[in-house]
């Protein structure tokens, strides 16, 4: 087992005038045995970052260490890592056993040991019943397990997951999420998990890295990221519906943005006056969309209420009060938390 | 056809039968001719459409040679069949090996002028063997390869078509497979042997069938570069039986033709399953 250290890691594609900087100096320290999720919109560089740790992309600048070794110039196979790919990347012509055993065979592990390790992994993942099948004879969920099995048998220092759940249907995804959590509890291997799905990130992560356009916006526990977002980007990316970012609230100070999550706004007898613009019912909760009535400029404010609350009428005036301890202030120009 | 109309069914079958007849008739004619005696073929006009009784003797002469009933000395085709078989095996095997390796290099390695190399290979597609046959002869002759298996096969081995085919196939292999293999610790040749080769098996089979027939049917090139009789392929043998100074024994010609058709037909039949698979589906 090992920690992962990223020290001012840069990635640039091309050179000269066509150069395209995709990772802008990311530094992070991932502790031994930790489960860290990298989350961000598509194209933010999260997969590139993971692939640099894996050794599949060259590192343009900076240093990546796994354990105490700098791995910049090591081949993927020498880095003591295992990776689960989005489309699983199972060898189509090999059966499940051979898929899992291939890496060990190359490493010249004795056959008895290979068998023992594969059997153990198969037991953990409950795939023992189809060891002789080919990948194409398996369902998506089963393939996913085999891919994880292939990672487990290597007994690596670090697990790397590249959006492994995005090819599964919603139900299976939720189930597999729990399984990955359980697996991590049992094996305790340092894991780096890339996803664009904030629910996956929030539920799986011990700590999460939020990335945007090649920059690490925030690195913290899901609670920290949710309760104290470091920037307006994090504030709107994590949480659904997103945080209200208000420039024209009555309390607003010039040059700042006030952030309030929809669930931290309550309809009260007095407070901010809003005109109800639209309503959305989501079962257990209801979203109320309002617009300012105090004439400071047009802005949409989303309020989340329980389904038990009275339903405001469209076009009517309501008053809302934010929870005083849940206000977030951001700099209007940099977007950073103040 | 979705509709079930007897008239239509009859028509489709009639067309199919007509097609079969057009293709099968010459073969049948060859087969029938090979079972009759030389006199029966030349004297009966038109020749009889029914099989004769002379099959065994004719095929024996066609294969092993000897004095025919009509009195002419015939060289057996068995040694020529062997020459054909050897060249027809060397050509596809050599072709597959060479083109797979060059496609592997072009697709998976980043080296300077990679695209230039690919286009240079590709451009040779534009030149059929016949166009470059003069220079090729010069080269083969000066290398002392006339009348050798090397001379018969090597000029036909280099193949842009096959390289192109494998390149296209390799491009469809997902990148993640390469990456998974890298993480598993497989070096380039190990990846080639353990992953690419088994994945390409159906393409290899299809290519083998096509190239075996191509090699077997070579006529112009062997005609040009073989002067010694023991290096003649069977296709040339058939030609040598016809005309010339002596009396043409059509039954022997036809028997030799049938014999020459057998190996390619056998290859197609045995590899049909693989061949079709290679052309239609790619299992990835």
Q: What does this 3D model show about the protein?
A:
The complex is a heterodimer of chains A (338) and B (284). Chain A is an alpha+beta fold and 338 residues long. Chain A has 2 domains: 4-229, 3-Layer(aba) Sandwich (Rossmann fold), CATH 3.40.50.300; 241-331, OB fold (Dihydrolipoamide Acetyltransferase, E2P) (Beta Barrel). In chain A, 25% of the residues lie in helices and 32% in strands. Chain A contains 8 helices and 18 strands. In chain A, strands 6-7-8-3-9-10 form a 6-stranded mixed beta sheet, with helices on both faces. A 5-stranded antiparallel beta sheet of chain A has the order 13-17-14-15-16, with no helix packed on it. In chain A, α2 crosses α3 (111-125), α2 (96-106) packs parallel to α4 (140-153) and α3 (111-125) crosses α4 (140-153). The longest helix of chain A is centred in the middle third of the chain and has 18 residues, at 170-187. The radius of gyration of chain A is 24 Å and the shape is elongated. The two termini of chain A are 38 Å apart. Chain B has a domain at 84-234 and 265-280: MetI-like (MetI-like fold). The relative contact order of chain B is 0.14. In chain B, α3 (55-64) packs across α14 and α4 runs parallel beside α7. By secondary structure, chain B is mainly alpha-helical. Chain B has a two-stranded antiparallel sheet. The two termini of chain B are 32 Å apart. In chain B, a hairpin with a 5-residue loop joins β1 (65-67) and β2 (73-75). Chain B contains 14 helices and 2 strands. Helices cover 71% and strands 2% of the residues of chain B.
Brief overview:
Chain A has 338 residues and is of the alpha+beta class.
Can you tag this structure with a few keywords?
heterodimer, A: 338 residues, alpha+beta, Rossmann fold, five-stranded antiparallel β-sheet, 8 helices, 25% helix, elongated, B: 284 residues, mainly alpha, MetI-like fold, 2% strand
Topology:
The complex is a heterodimer of chains A (about 350) and B (about 280).
Chain A: E1 4-13, E2 20-30, E3 35-39, H1 46-54, E4 61-66, E5 69-70, E6 81-84, H2 96-106, H3 111-125, H4 140-153, E7 158-162, H5 170-187, E8 190-195, H6 198-204, E9 207-212, E10 215-220, H7 222-227, H8 232-237, E11 244-246, E12 256-260, E13 265-268, E14 272-281, E15 285-292, E16 300-306, E17 317-322, E18 328-331
Parallel strand pairs in A: 3-8, 3-9, 6-7, 7-8
Antiparallel strand pairs in A: 1-2, 1-4, 4-5, 9-10, 11-12, 12-18, 13-17, 14-15, 14-17, 15-16
Helix pairs in contact in A: 2-3, 2-4, 3-4
Chain B: H1 6-35, H2 38-43, H3 55-64, E1 65-67, E2 73-75, H4 78-108, H5 114-123, H6 133-142, H7 149-157, H8 160-172, H9 175-183, H10 188-199, H11 201-216, H12 220-225, H13 234-241, H14 250-280
Antiparallel strand pairs in B: 1-2
Helix pairs in contact in B: 1-14, 3-14, 4-7, 4-8, 4-11, 11-14, 13-14
């Amino acid at each position: 087992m090992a920690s992962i250290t990223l020290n001012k890691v840069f990635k640039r594609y091309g050179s000269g005038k066509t150069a395209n900087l995709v990772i802008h100096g990311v530094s992070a320290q991932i502790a031994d045995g930790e489960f860290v999720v990298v989350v961000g919109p598509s194209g933010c560089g999260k997969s590139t970052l993971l692939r640099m740790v894996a050794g599949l992309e060259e590192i343009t600048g900076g240093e990546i260490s796994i354990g105490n070794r700098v791995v910049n110039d090591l081949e993927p196979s020498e880095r003591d890592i295992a990776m689960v790919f989005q489309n699983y990347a199972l060898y189509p012509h090999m059966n499940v056993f051979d898929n899992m055993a291939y890496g060990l065979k190359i490493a010249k592990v004795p056959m008895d040991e290979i068998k023992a390790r594969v059997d153990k992994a198969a037991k953990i993942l409950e795939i023992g019943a189809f060891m002789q099948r080919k990948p194409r004879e398996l369902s998506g969920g089963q393939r996913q397990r085999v891919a994880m099995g292939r990672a487990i048998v290597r007994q690596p220092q670090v697990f790397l997951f590249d959006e492994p759940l995005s090819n599964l249907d919603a139900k299976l995804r939720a189930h597999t999420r729990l399984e990955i959590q359980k697996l991590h509890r049992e094996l305790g291997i340092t894991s780096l998990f890339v996803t664009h799905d904030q629910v996956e990130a929030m539920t799986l992560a011990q700590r999460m890295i939020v990335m945007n356009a090649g920059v690490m916006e925030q690195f913290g526990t899901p609670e920290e990221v949710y309760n104290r977002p470091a920037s307006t980007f994090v504030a709107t990316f994590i949480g659904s519906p997103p945080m209200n970012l208000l420039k024209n609230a009555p309390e607003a100070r010039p040059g700042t943005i006030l952030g309030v999550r929809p669930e931290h706004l309550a309809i009260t007898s007095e407070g901010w006056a809003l005109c109800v613009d639209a309503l959305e019912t989501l079962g257990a909760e209801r979203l109320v969309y309002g617009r300012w009535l105090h004439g400071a400029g047009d802005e949409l404010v989303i309020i989340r209420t329980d389904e038990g609350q009275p339903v405001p009428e469209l076009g009517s005036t309501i008053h809302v009060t934010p929870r005083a301890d849940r206000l977030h202030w951001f700099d209007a120009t940099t977007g950073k938390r103040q | 056809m979705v509709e079930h109309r007897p008239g239509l069914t009859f028509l489709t079958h009639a067309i199919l039968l007509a097609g079969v007849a057009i293709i099968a008739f010459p073969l049948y004619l060859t087969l029938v001719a090979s079972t009759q005696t030389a006199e029966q073929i030349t004297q009966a006009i038109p020749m009889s459409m029914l099989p004769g009784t002379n099959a065994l003797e004719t095929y024996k002469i066609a294969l092993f040679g000897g004095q025919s009933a009509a009195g002419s000395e015939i060289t057996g085709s068995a040694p020529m069949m062997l020459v054909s078989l050897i060249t027809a095996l060397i050509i596809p095997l050599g072709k597959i090996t060479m083109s797979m390796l060059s496609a592997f290099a072009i697709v998976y390695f980043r080296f300077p002028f990679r695209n230039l190399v690919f286009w240079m290979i590709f451009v040779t597609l534009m030149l059929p063997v016949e166009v470059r046959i003069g220079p090729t002869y010069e080269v083969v002759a000066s290398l002392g390869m006339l009348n050798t298996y090397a001379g018969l096969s090597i000029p036909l081995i280099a193949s842009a078509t096959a390289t192109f085919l494998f390149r296209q196939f390799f491009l469809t292999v997902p990148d993640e497979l390469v990456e998974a293999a890298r993480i598993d610790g497989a070096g380039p040749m190990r990846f080639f042997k353990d992953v690419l080769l088994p994945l390409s098996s159906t393409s290899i089979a299809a290519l083998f069938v096509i190239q075996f027939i191509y090699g077997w049917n070579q006529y112009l090139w062997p005609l040009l570069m073989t002067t010694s009789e023991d290096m003649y392929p069977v296709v040339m043998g058939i030609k040598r039986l016809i005309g010339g100074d002596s009396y043409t024994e059509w039954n022997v010609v036809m028997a030799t033709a049938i014999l020459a058709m057998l190996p390619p037909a056998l290859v197609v039949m045995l590899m049909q399953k693989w061949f079709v698979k290679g052309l239609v589906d790619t299992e990835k």
